[in-house]
Amino acid sequence: MKRQEDTVTLRRKSQRILQWFFSVLLLALAALVAKRMGFNGPNKAQVGLTASFATVFLIQRIFRTRVLISQDEVCVVNAVFKYSVTRDAIAQALIDAQGNLKLKTTAGEEVYIAAYSGSLIDHYVGSADRAAEVIRQRLKAKPTASRNSTVRRRIAMSWLSEIWLAGAVICATWTAIGNAVG
Q: Where would you find the membrane-spanning parts of this chain (predicted)?
């Protein structure tokens, strides 16, 4: 079992702030919509709630992207997919011409890291460069002797964002049933 203190998490601070700011803002707006429109009148609040919950789901998915570096592998969590790359499979961590951080594997594949995609101000701030340097240092610090040099791709699961997706689906179903019945 991996020890928690051996894992380094790389994520922009601005993403955390924006994630919670927009989520709270949209949920406050959803509460106002529900209070104002009511659930039984001609302007049912379920449609607004569906849109709000779906938007919070997307915000949570996009802003929860990150890189997890453990002793055995580097795990890239993007909005939809999660890539687990063994340390032996990583040839280099590089920044492309657009400012995007990528992992280049020994097999020639490139794993795009959405958490450090080129932003407008990153040219001045350099967070992608710092993240690439942290990845390089961590890969040099503890060499491993893994027999399996692979890149595994799976669907990224995030219970925090999936809750909002479930809420949006419930509200959409509630709206559809309400419109069908009367």
A: 20-39, 45-63, 156-177
